[in-house]
Design a protein that fits this description.
Blueprint (H helix, E strand, L loop, with lengths): L15 H16 L4 H15 L5 H8 L1 H5 L17 H17 L2
Helix pairs in contact: 1-2, 1-3, 2-3
Length: 105
Amino acid sequence: MTEEAVEKKVFENTDFKFSAAYGAYSERFDNSENNAEERQRLNDLIVKLDANDISYPNFYEEVSRPDREEGERRYKFHRTRISGSRKFAARKAEQKADRVKRHKR
C-alpha cells in the first residue's frame, strides 16, 4: 500500500480573519512535512473553519495543540481592561505631581 501525499487546501475566501487563520494553518502545515496524520488533522480543521463548524479561537487552540503537548507554554489570549481618566482628572494629577516635584528640590 502506498500512502498518498496530503496536499495543502486552497480557498477563495478573502475574509481577513480567515486569511490570518489560513496563514497559521499554512505555517503549521509546512512545518509538519513528515507527519501525514498531522497534515490531515490540519486540513480537517481548516475545512471546518471555512464551513463555520468551529470558531476562530477553537481553531487556533487546536492548531497550537501539539506545542502544548510538547511542554511548551503558550500565552492564552485574554482581554485586559484599559483604565483611563478624564481630561480634567489627568490634568489635576499632573499639576499635583509638578507641584511636588518643584518643591522637593
